[in-house]
Amino acid sequence: MKNTLVLKSSILGPHSQSTQLIDKVLEGKSGIIERNLAENPLPILDMDVATALRGGDDLTEQQQAILALSDQLIDELKAADQIVIGAPMYNFMVPTQLKNWFDMIARAGVTFSYTENGPVGLIDNKKVIVVTTRGGLHKDSPRNSIESYLTTMLGFIGLTDVEFVYAEALNMGEEQAEAAREQATQALSELV
Ligand SMILES: Cc1cc2nc3c(=O)[nH]c(=O)nc-3n(C[C@H](O)[C@H](O)[C@H](O)COP(=O)(O)O)c2cc1C
């Protein structure tokens, strides 16, 4: 059985377009492990969290808990055969909640390492599908920093097989929105 790790990050709960799209395509499929990063937010990277993620013997109890949570997230990532990421655009970036997930799993010696030849990702390569929902139109423009951020960040930990499914123009009239939703549903169904 194929394990699919699903990361959702929309703040819009049941109204979320990325969540609805992912749910529609994955409905009834087995082997789904879901993390809703908006419903269950992760800590924001600060000095305490950065210290925790480096590990060692002198961590506070709270830092030990952060490290254990990071280990759990990394275990989920490693166990997955494919990953589906819901990545809405808020203020031209991914939601903070999704950024926090990457900040929690980026660990030197665990998910990446630096070598004489530069950084090497330590996660076994697997398919990643990013479902990115937007109110406007940004693909193929310099405003599409979500694609470059996610491609760089995923590649850094070893995940270079990344496909983007776009649902754009969702706030530009119902006709365009419906067409975008249909196209994205089709594209996602073909990829998972
Ligand atoms: C706080 C907020 C910020 C947004 N910023 C942008 C933006 O920068 N560009 C854009 O095209 N749409 C923007 N939108 C529209 C969302 O991308 C759109 O509602 C999309 O459906 C969000 O995905 P979701 O429904 O899965 O949360 C924003 C929406 C919200 C709520």
Topology record:
Elements: E1 4-8, H1 17-26, E2 32-36, H2 47-54, H3 61-79, E3 82-86, H4 96-105, E4 112-115, E5 118-121, E6 127-133, H5 145-156, E7 161-167, H6 174-191
Parallel strand pairs: 1-2, 1-3, 3-6, 6-7
Antiparallel strand pairs: 4-5
Helix pairs in contact: 1-6, 2-3
Give an overview of the whole structure.
By secondary structure, the protein is α/β, with parallel strands linked by helices. It has helices spanning 17-26, 47-54, 61-79, 96-105, 145-156, 174-191; strands spanning 4-8, 32-36, 82-86, 112-115, 118-121, 127-133, 161-167. The strands form 2 sheets. Strands 2-1-3-6-7 form a 5-stranded parallel beta sheet, sandwiched between helices. The chain has a two-stranded antiparallel sheet with strand order 4-5. Strand 1 (4-8), helix 1 and strand 2 form a beta-alpha-beta unit. Helix 1 (17-26) crosses helix 6 and helix 2 packs across helix 3 (61-79). The longest helix has 19 residues, at 61-79. Flavin mononucleotide (FMN) is lined by residues 10, 12, 16-19, 88-92, 133-136, 138, 170-171.
